[in-house]
Amino acid sequence: QMQLAESGGGLVQPGESLRLSCAASGTIFRPYVMAWYLQVPGKQRELVSSITSVGKTIYADSVKGRFTISRDSAKNTMYLQMNRLIPEDTAVYYCYLQDGIMRRDSWGQGIQVTVSS
Fold it and tell me: How many CB atoms lie within 10 A of CB 65?
């Protein structure tokens, strides 16, 4: 399992922005997909956005036009730029990686994002 470390979370007011980072240690094998999931208490983890090794991206309807996923392959790092945050974005955000032909799954520890006035 790859080690994934999230950073960049915190407490912000509605309308503000945050950028989450997910740094992977070790070698990422192609093909891969990296993703951000969120989870709120009492609910299942749900997909926020994903990006593949060829750059294909997917967004949940709730974040389209507000969030942007990207990656820096040289740094083994994925980002989630979160703009115009709303209270409903409050959750623990998890980084996910599935890589290689064996489809190795890895998860980060999660990072709290709180949007509140």
Answer: 9
Please report, for residues 19, 45, 77, the alpha-carbon distance to residue 100 in angstroms, rounded to integers and kept in the order given. Answer: 27, 23, 17
Question: What's the residue count for the chain?
Answer: 117
From first to last of the 117 residues of the chain, give the pLDDT tens digit.
889 999 999 999 999 999 999 999 989 999 999 999 999 999 999 999 999 999 999 999 999 999 999 999 999 999 999 999 999 999 999 999 999 989 999 999 999 999 999
How far is 18 from 10, CA to CA, in rounded Å?
A: 8
DSSP letter for each residue of 60-85: -TTTTTTEEEEEEGGGTEEEEEE-S-
